[in-house]
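In the laboratory, one determines a bound structure by crystallizing the protein with its ligand and collecting diffraction data. In a computational setting the workflow is compressed into a single prediction: the sequence and the ligand go in, and a structural description comes out. We illustrate the idea with glycinamide ribonucleotide.
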Amino acid sequence: MIRRVPTAILISGRGSNMAALLEAAAAPDYPAEVRLVLSNRADAAGLAHAASRGIPTTVVESRPFGRDREAFEAAMEAELRAAGVELLALAGFMRVLTEGFVARWQDRLVNVHPSLLPSFRGLDTHARALAAGVRLHGCTVHLVRPGVDEGPIIAQSAVPVLPDDTEASLAARVLAQEHLLYPAALAWLAAGMVRVEGSVARVAAPSGGGALANPLPGLHTLPRTEPER
Ligand code: GAR
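The predicted complex, in structure-token form:
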């Protein structure tokens, strides 16, 4: 029997990456067990989906805390401690975390970002990729460090940028890859297959955490991380 690492998913909105993680983690041999979905917004659509799957949810509204990020994080950590989680997966969680929080969860805090980092940190990544005229775009799953969208890269997936792409068409192509990549990358982390050497994360998987466009050749080395068709 593998040990399943108790995990929380943090969201702020739609929660489609959260849904992909819940789908993967529904398999009994997935190495992370989602114990809690936490949102900093009560109106996050993902909350209802998590609840419909029987996953405990909680809301810690960030707005009432204003600029007091430490107080917001203390409230959030009380919930995370109560749930006994050891791993945090940010899935469209749109709050910048303090250095203290990031340090306390060092190498146990992972994020998905809709670009091939270190290009296009921050917001509006698809519009910026189109404006820059890049031919390849994609998504990254990385360990979180204090700088926004910085940290050792666990896995990336690239997609082509097509001549007639709009922001929406490109976002959809990237999002489909996020939904494949994130469950695989979280599984690697939970299974202890990720080793951090300075600013580089080494992954003990045949693909080493890389994938080019879709489908993701050789990426899914763990059972049951394939999407359902
Ligand atoms: C995703 O595209 C995710 O990569 C992005 O927000 C979206 C959330 O969608 N995250 C960031 O930009 C973090 N810097 P979802 O709620 O449907 O998963």
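Residues 11, 13-17, 91-92, 112-114, 149, 175, 178 surround glycinamide ribonucleotide (CB under 6 Å). Keep in mind that any predicted model is a hypothesis to be tested, not a measurement.
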